[in-house]
Amino acid sequence: MVEVPAVVVELVELLAATLGAGAAAAVGVAFEQFGLSAVSGGRLVLGAWAAGMGLLALYVGLVGLGYEQALPRLRRLVSGE
After folding, report:
1. Which of 1, 42, 50, 61 is the most exposed place for a label (fewest CB within 10 A)?
2. 55-77 burial: b if 16+ Cβ within 10 Å, else e
3. What is the CB neighbour count within 10 angstroms for residue 40?
């Protein structure tokens, strides 16, 4: 079996967390835009649901994956731990 250096594993994990955070944040923004257009079109329930899902996706992307996963991995990688 091939031994993979720890730095490579850390880089792959950082890349996955960063891409996941970006994707979740982009989905959140899309839901928020859809919710705003639904509310302005008179569909309040659909707009409220979309806004709620958008906030959830933004939270997952920015806080869950970005602040709690990607940022500590980046700090560990930069500090050389």
Report:
1. 1
2. eebbebbbebbbeebbeebeeee
3. 9
Tokens 């997952």, located at residue:
60
Does residue 21 contact residue 65 with C-beta atoms inside 8 Å?
Answer: yes
Torsion over CA: 4, 9, 15, 21 (sign): positive
pTM (2 decimals)? 0.86
Q: Looking at the predicted structure, is the pLDDT value of residue 81 above 80?
A: no
Please state whether 80 falls in left (phi above 0), alpha (psi between -120 and 50) or beta. left
